Amino acid sequence: MKIIIINGPNLNLLGKREPEVYGKQTFEDYFSQLQFKFKDVQLEYFQSNIEGEIIGKIQETGFSYDGIVLNAAAYTHTSVGIGDAVKAVETPVVEVHISNTFNREEFRHTSYISPGAKGVILGFGLQSYDLAIQSFLEGAE
Ligand code: DQA
């Protein structure tokens, strides 16, 4: 089972970015915990602050991987291009968010990713990623 986590803009700053919203742990640290927990899964991690690079990575992995866990961050609310990429590929995409975007500003209530996603997990902090990976494992049984 091959799964990639794709993180969008500013998520490279996790740990120091608005810790009251996103927590104090760096994603690199959390990712090692995930690798330890899901030893049977080939887990990959990609982060970019650039919309086109995120689209490129979805296209590159979206016809051969078993799952994509996508936190498009701010692009969630703006990017028709990433939304279209999610719809274009064969690999199922689970949309995740660390925060509960629905109890935040109005502009975070819209997602261009959700219409093409297999499902959406949000508001569980970094555990949202863990739950997304589990959803692929259980779906494979
Ligand atoms: C986020 C929520 C987005 O609204 C925000 O722009 C982010 C992170 C989250 O994981 O909670 O950068 O996707």
Automatic annotation (TrEMBL):
UniProt site (Transition state stabilizer): 17
Keywords assigned: Amino-acid biosynthesis, Aromatic amino acid biosynthesis, Lyase
Active site location: 22, 97
Entry's EC annotation: 4.2.1.10
Domain of life: Bacteria
Catalytic function, reaction form: 3-dehydroquinate = 3-dehydroshikimate + H2O
Gene3D superfamilies in UniProt: Dehydroquinase, class II (3.40.50.9100)
Protein family: Belongs to the type-II 3-dehydroquinase family.
Assembly mode: Homododecamer.
Stated name of the protein: 3-dehydroquinate dehydratase
